[in-house]
Amino acid sequence: MALQKVLLAAPRGWCAGVDRAVEIVERALQIYGPPVYVRKQIVHNRHVVEGLERRGAIFVDEVDEVPRGCLCVLSAHGSAPAVYQLAEQRDLRLIDATCPLVTKVHVEAIRFAKRERTIVLIGHAGHEEVEGTMGEAPDRTILVQDTDDAERLEVADPDNISYLTQTTLSVDETADIIATLRRRFPNIKAPTRSDICYATTNRQAAVKVLARRAPLVLVIGAPNSSNSKRMVEVARQHGAESYLIEDETQIEPGWLDGIEVVGLSSSASAPEHLVESVLDYLSAAEVEEVRVVDEDVHFPLPKEVAGAAACP
Fold first, then answer.
1. Confidence class for position 308, pLDDT limits 50, 70, 90
2. Quick check: 150 and 181 in contact, CB under 8 A?
3. Which of 92, 177, 204, 207 lies in disulfide reach of 87, CB 3.0 to 4.6 Å?
């Protein structure tokens, strides 16, 4: 039987931090003109990056690739202090697009380090956000990726330890890691508020609902996006088959064989036009929006671009 219904998750797609980061680059191009250099992908989405490249953004891996004195935007994932120091040495004009929720984790790392605490950072090795946070206190920070790492962890002073988390982790998996740390280190200090981003939490909650109602859940996102991959994992853990796709061209027709209901969501770095394209491809008889929670979060723009009108 042909596909009858798509369950469309809400909330889905861009979070406030991604929306802000992309708007920063757009406004920088509008105000200062191209080229505008950007350290790392501004957000983890190929379609977003390619769209900004067409408008004159140039993406680089490190600030030493930016010509001296030029304008450079730092990505939403956060940067280590060494990046700012090198940028200053090269007389770069910086605009910081770090998500305020990531900045919060950096501030906590600095606070814990000043108190000479061992910092346990729960996250994924190699992720840009993790590298930036660890850069705040590299000699005091230990990365823990899973419960096995938490079980093996040894520190010099078990009573002087704190933990932080990457903002885009699986809520359930992180809870298990924290529980292990609390059991092993009863005096461990938590951050003032959960570090996991509101959008990550909400999108995973919506995917859980989809997975209970649909045998197949598609997540639009990028293979290098942590929150995208976590959404797929959550769907699978809650009973659905699930695939991560960048756009409709990556849907395998065989996935839909015998499927009457498909769940569809998009990660916090995926623009809404990709959702529309996937819906057009699926051509279901009915689209039902499954709303789990309303979001009304907005982050102010940095002063360097705040005065310009939004780009068309």
1. low
2. yes
3. 92
